[in-house]
Amino acid sequence: MAFSAGTLVALQTANSNAGKVWLYNEDATLAAIRAANYFNAAAATWGMGDADLIFIIGNDGFGINLTILTGVNVTMGEALTSA
């Protein structure tokens, strides 16, 4: 599946020195959602940045990730996943 902006919500925004907190819910697996470059559109359009925290709800569980922004590409860093 592809990133869907309609299921991304900014839960908290902060000053430029702190990251943001996001919630993303989609009918896709956590592995698919955590794929490299999945959130590129969110960085370009919504302002998702480096070291933001994202709560992910997928069809196989939930997880928490830190984002890693390299140029315009977003990848997932450290993760916590439901068992």
Description:
The structure is a single chain. By secondary structure, this protein is mainly beta. The chain has one domain (5-81). Helix content is 13%, strand content 42%. Strands 1-2-3-4-5 form a 5-stranded mixed β-sheet. The chain starts with 7 loop residues before the first strand and ends with a strand.
Number of strands: 5
- Binned, the helix content reads 10-25%
Strands in their spatial order, largest beta sheet? 1-2-3-4-5
Strand content: 35-45%
Please tell me what the overall shape is: globular
What layout of secondary structure does this protein have?
Blueprint (H helix, E strand, L loop, with lengths): L7 E5 L8 E5 L4 H4 L6 H7 L6 E6 L2 E10 L2 E9 L2
Parallel strand pairs: 2-3
Antiparallel strand pairs: 1-2, 3-4, 4-5
Give a quick rundown of the structure.
The protein is mainly beta. 13% of the residues lie in helices and 42% in strands. The chain is globular, with a radius of gyration of 12 Å.
Observed structural traits:
mainly beta; 5-stranded mixed beta sheet; 13% helix
